[in-house]
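cache lookup: miss for this entity combination. No prior model stored, computing from scratch. Input as submitted by user K.M.:
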Amino acid sequence: MEITRIISIAISMVFINNFILSKFLGLCPFLGVSRRTQAALSMGIAVIFVMVFSSLLTSLVYVFVLVPLGIVYLRTIFFILIIAAFVQLIEMVIRKKSPALYKALGIYLPLITTNCAVLGVTILNINEFFVPGIPVYAGILYSIIQAFFGGIGFCVALLLMSGIRERLEFTDTPISMKGIPVAFIVASIMSLAFMGFSGFKF
Amino acid sequence: MEILYPIIALGSLGILFGVGLSLAAKKFCVSTDPRIDKIQNSLPGANCGACGMGGCSSLAEALAEGKCGIDKCTVVNDDNKIKISEILGVEFKKSAKKIATLHCAGGVRVKNRYTYSGIEDCTAVNLVLGGQKSCVYGCLGFGTCVKTCPFGAIKMSQKGLPVVDKGKCRACNKCVEACPKKLFSLTEEAYNVFVACSSRDSGKDTKLVCPVGCIACRLCEKACKFDAIHVIDNIAVIDYNKCTSCGECVKACPMKTIKS
């Protein structure tokens, strides 16, 4: 495990390949939950949490079930099943053990079940860190790191957007552009700005 | 043979998750108060926020926990109040029904100071020198209250004044907050006497701009046998704790400002 590779994964996931602004995954919460900063932060933290643990689970299943049985082509179905079941379980556990955290995450935890960014990160892990057909154990660790920084990138984009939208509320926007339309324009400009990062090479 | 692996793997994973989740649901089950759902079914469901909570479900929770009484909800009707009281196991006390009352009778009879052409909204007009009407206390007539009322109880009349439909009004307080001139108040329906003016100008100034405004002549004070009406800041104010709705002040008022 090299420290330079971790750094390059971090910068790549947060800026260059940002899930929302470069890969256009998880746009639903990006527009739906970015109205207030507090909600955006809760959602971001929940996404980081779910991404890390579902990456761990899916890469374990990939290495120890899918590759030995030779059914790698079924990974999407397997991963969706795992993520959905995992989020359900987490929701039950949190609800029982920590009502305060449950209130803070609220509706966002079940929302993540159908978030394509979570499935996206697990598929991306497989494509990047695993050689087709051969189990690579170091890939599990890299998967978790990539998922963590992917989640951070998601959180950063959500926070930036919510900050802008909170200010947009007080600006003199034409009626026809108020709310979602102007948010889409802001999102596209942000996305263009993040495209600038793709010039970096590691 | 090849088809068997995916079927077995996916099937067993499905069974594993299914059984696991159903066991976990039993183990981590959180029991919620069953009364909350029942109470919520009896609440109006308008989510108007008149109770000060986030919505009807928040109020239902607060009611079940005993944090507040059913009186908090001004919208719910008596039948449902009785139902909720039964669910909570408390005695139901009938409280007087309140309705929104407009304290202005000017309308089109008050002349405009200037021609306003802009957003058709009282709040916006009010920002321009306190509105286009000669009387700076009176109704502007752009119907912000009509738009605000969640129950459709307020309509604009030909006279340029909003009229409250007593049957539809639920005393949710929305119009009281929305009116930039603060012309609405919630009064008990039983006491049907009210002062239809809010002008704090002196009698002379009021008479110049409005034919039906309170001129602070104090005839109502003299007419009242119960010491219930007083002129404060050039406007008659009724003390509803003392008022008996006898109607003497209505007869005495020379401007027909006090109405019943």
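stored under new cache key. Residues 37-69 of chain A form the longest helix (33 residues).
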